[in-house]
């Protein structure tokens, strides 16, 4: 999944806060949701799951064809139930929708700034 400034669609970054003791459970639940449900939803373009070193925060990044595709996925009975279970494991859980504002690529070796 490559990000470009002209990328159409909707970006969703969700953050989850938890204790280190429940981090593995949250990661397992999220990976299971992506593998069994989310990746098959209309408009899903790809995603990733990230965890911090302290295992107190997880962030997911996903791309959708349209905001309505993401919202429709959230309303499915399966995801409503899964999100209730994930929320029980977290102190806080927040999905936020974004549009790509800029893309910065690395400079080539030896290239002057």
Characterise this structure:
With 113 residues, the protein is an alpha+beta fold. The chain has a single domain, classed as Alpha-Beta Plaits (2-Layer Sandwich), CATH 3.30.70. The chain contains 3 helices and 4 strands. The protein has helices spanning 20-36, 67-75, 77-89; strands at residues 10-17, 44-51, 57-64, 92-98. A 4-stranded antiparallel β-sheet has the order 2-3-1-4. A hairpin with a 5-residue loop joins strand 2 and strand 3 (57-64). Helix 1 runs antiparallel to helix 3. The mean pLDDT is 91. Residues 10-100 form the ABM domain. This is Antibiotic biosynthesis monooxygenase. Keywords: Monooxygenase, Oxidoreductase. One of its GO terms (molecular function) is monooxygenase activity.
């Amino acid at each position: 999944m490559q990000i470009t400034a002209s990328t159409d669609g909707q970006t969703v970054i969700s953050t989850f806060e938890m204790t280190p003791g429940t981090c593995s459970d949250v990661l397992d639940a999220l990976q299971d949701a992506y593998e069994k449900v989310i990746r098959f939803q209309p408009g899903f373009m790809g995603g990733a799951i990230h965890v911090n070193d302290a295992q107190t925060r997880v962030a997911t990044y996903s791309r959708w064809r349209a905001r309505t595709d993401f919202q429709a996925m959230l309303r499915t009975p399966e995801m409503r139930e899964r999100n209730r279970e994930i929320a029980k494991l977290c102190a806080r859980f927040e999905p936020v929708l974004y549009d790509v504002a800029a893309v910065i690529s690395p400079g080539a070796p030896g290239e002057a700034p």
